[in-house]
Design brief:
By secondary structure, the protein is an all-alpha fold. Helices cover 88% and strands 0% of the residues. It has helices spanning 4-27, 32-61, 63-71, 75-136.
Amino acid sequence: MLNTERVALMTRLARYEKKEEKRYLKIGKYYRSDYIGMSLLKNFFASTIAYILILGLAVVYNMETVMHKMSGLKLESFIFEAVVGYILMLAIYSGITYTVASIRYAKAIKSLEDYDRSLKKLEKDYTMETQGALRKKPGGHF
């Protein structure tokens, strides 16, 4: 017998798997600390590459000022400013990354808990139907 509630639940679960698989199901495979650590590691490399590119563009754009600092042996102040700028940028972006990754992980876990509850409900429904079918067999004992 076709149970319309079960069909609707199965359709909803299949839609969830298809739609959210890339986001939530992959995030749910990790522990919270691993997921956030991985996000921070990606952020470190991306921020470092971005800072090097931005610093290179700034040096090319302000070549006259850079040459003036280099000729006056004020290279230490230039390097100090570059390092402080890098540390500041890395700290800000790491904070943002940590916050975003924490929120994404919390949303994914909540969504996966709802998905798991629906799966358990579907399994329970099938178990009850199977047990009922075994009881209805003529001459069968359960």
